[in-house]
Design a protein that fits this description.
Length: about 250
């Protein structure tokens, strides 16, 4: 399966939901069960990654368990060159465009490039923008956080990413953020770019997800909610809200 093409084709027709699982937060077998529940709730892909504590053996085992449990694409969401698994279908080959440290913009990517080529993992070029409050990824990624009240800065970065050849732009408020990326910022970025927009961080209810999707996110990502709500009733609501916006637009 060509994962990038799958995403491009799917966002032409509807809004997508992706579930992020952090290998450091549970045993691999548990991650497999969570992925299955997420897909049953309607999630279109499983992203695998975490900002801290991800270790190779555990990452490989987690990806394998997830792949045993579900048929949707598995996409690595790496914290750096040390968190790559050959078992995943694809990897977001991402650059934190608003990092203050060049290693997060192109240094880790340089270290990872030949490894990825040898492993034969599909790459999906993505410009990653961290918005206040940024949480752990803002700190670890040494981001010069985009102020919540400055949509123009997000637009400038996003368009720069598009012109650099990124296939996707990801607006990230940080996992566990108290609120999602502001609607106005999502709207402004969506109005200016021609590539799909991914939004994540702090989305915890159907109403949050609906607002993010209505503002223009093509792909909505949630992580924490699967860890909090093992019955996944909220996730059902989130996916339904996102999909219903897609049908209206
Ligand atoms: C992190 O955007 C994702 O990259 C998910 O965030 O854990 O807050 O859902 P949450």
């Amino acid at each position: 399966m060509k994962v990038f093409q799958y995403i491009l084709d799917k966002v032409e027709k509807e809004k997508m939901h992706m579930t992020l699982l952090d290998p450091d937060k549970q045993q691999p077998s548990e991650a497999g069960k969570m992925a299955l529940m997420a897909v049953e709730a309607g999630s279109d892909a499983i992203m695998i990654g975490g900002s801290t504590g991800v270790e190779q053996g555990n990452l490989d085992e987690t990806v394998r368990e997830i792949k045993k449990s579900v048929d949707v694409p598995t996409i690595l969401f790496p914290a750096g060159a040390h968190t790559i698994s050959k078992y995943a279908d694809a990897i977001y080959f991402m650059s934190i465009l608003n990092s203050e440290n060049v290693k997060n913009i192109v240094g880790e990517q340089r270290k990872a490039s030949l490894v990825i080529k040898k492993m034969g993992i599909q790459t999906i070029p993505m410009g990653y923008l961290i918005v206040e409050p940024g949480m752990t990824v803002g700190r670890v990624g040494e981001a010069s956080l985009i102020p919540r009240e400055s949509p123009r800065i997000a637009v400038e970065y996003a368009l720069a990413g598009q012109y650099l050849g990124m296939g996707l732009i990801y607006l990230e408020a940080g996992s566990g953020a108290p609120a999602p990326v502001p609607k106005e910022m999502i709207r402004s970025v969506k109005a200016e770019i021609d590539i799909p927009l991914v939004v994540g961080g702090g989305i915890r209810s159907g109403s949050d997800a609906r607002q993010v999707a209505e503002a223009g996110a093509d792909v909505v990502v949630t992580g924490t909610i699967v860890e909090m709500d093992k019955s996944l009733s909220v996730l059902h609501d989130i996916v339904e809200s996102i999909k219903s916006v897609g049908k209206m637009q």
